[in-house]
Specification:
- The protein is built from two helices and 23 strands.
- Strand 14 and strand 15 form a beta hairpin.
- 5% of the residues lie in helices and 44% in strands.
- A nine-stranded antiparallel β-sheet has the order 6-7-8-9-23-19-18-13-16, with no helix packed on it.
- By secondary structure, it is mainly beta.
- Bound molecules: 6-O-phosphono-beta-D-glucopyranose.
Length: 284
């Protein structure tokens, strides 16, 4: 069965994924703009697990605020491009899919090649299974020389109350604090909690990280492979107020956990080679 392509916000095409035929089963949505996951509702919780701002702008080339922006070929300001690279601002094409999974692909435009002269194909596959969403990122070097990139799957999780949310699994790691000129610190706490702005790149993060949503009474387990690092971000009051496409109070409802290549060396990919990394979320 072909993927179910419908018209979403801003008249943009999106794919609706479902597990099985029953209404009420697990469901997810992916926009072709940016290969951007904007919704995941597992049957187990019956709740939306992904945060998208009520002020998100669905108008390319603007990136959608919330969901899972794909940051590629640059994380943040770590290179010559605009923040987080251009994949999140680009239209992907459907390459393959069925009712519960889709592969979207991006090749650079002429304009992209002027800014970043490297031919590649980026494929994002989103697959739904009961209680689990899997997102696979594949980068193929289509050029004739090695390419280097940094990246992230910039995942905005919805939480009921950020002051009652915890990120577990990062104790003992070195992190670069984006709020202090990327100075290096060691995480002393068993869990990261939120009482102010947090913007950290955890280097060599473990492949399992737990997000506990205390107020909702559930957790999301994030499993990553291939991404060495993980970014944890909440903008809090002042940064939230400075973002035009983000409500002033919405920092209370979200936590970003982003499997990334950001604190570690960039990926160097020889001509013709492919790099693959995966993130999986499961409810608990
Ligand atoms: O506003 P943007 O470009 O989507 O970025 C949002 C945030 O993305 C995070 O990954 C960065 O660590 C933050 O510094 C940044 O503010």
């Amino acid at each position: 069965m072909a993927p179910n392509l419908v018209t979403g916000d801003g008249d943009l095409p999106k794919v609706v994924l479902r597990c099985g035929d029953e209404p009420g089963g697990d469901k997810a949505e992916v926009y072709l703009h940016g290969a951007h996951v904007t919704s995941w509702i597992p049957e187990a919780t019956g709740k939306e697990m992904i945060f998208v701002s009520k002020d998100a702008i669905f108008k390319p080339p603007k990136a959608i605020r919330g969901g899972v922006p794909v940051c590629f070929p640059q994380f943040s300001d770590m290179g010559p491009l605009g923040a987080h690279g251009f994949a999140r601002n680009s239209a992907f094409e459907v390459q393959d899919g069925e009712s519960d999974q889709v592969t979207l692909a991006l090749r650079p435009s002429e304009e992209d090649l002027e800014r970043w002269p490297q031919k590649f194909e980026l494929r994002i596959t989103v697959a739904l299974s009961p209680g689990c969403l899997t997102q696979t990122m594949e980068v193929q070097n289509m050029g004739s020389s090695a390419m280097e990139f940094t990246c992230a799957l910039h995942t905005y999780f919805r939480v009921e109350d950020v002051t009652n949310a915890q990120v577990k699994g990062l104790r003992g790691l070195t992190y670069l604090d984006n709020l202090q000129s990327r100075e290096r610190f060691t995480e002393a706490n068993a869990c990261v909690e939120f009482s102010g702005e947090v913007d950290r790149i955890y280097c060599g993060a473990p492949d399992t990280i737990d997000l506990v949503d205390g107020a909702a009474g559930h957790s999301v387990v994030i499993e990553k492979t291939g991404f060495p690092d993980a970014v944890v971000w909440n903008p809090w009051v002042d940064k939230a107020a400075s973002l035009k496409d983000f409500g002033d109070e919405e920092y209370k409802e979200m936590v970003c956990i982003e499997p990334a290549v950001a604190g570690s060396d960039p990926i160097s990919l020889d001509a013709g080679k492919m790099w693959t990394a995966v993130q999986k979320f499961m409810t608990r």
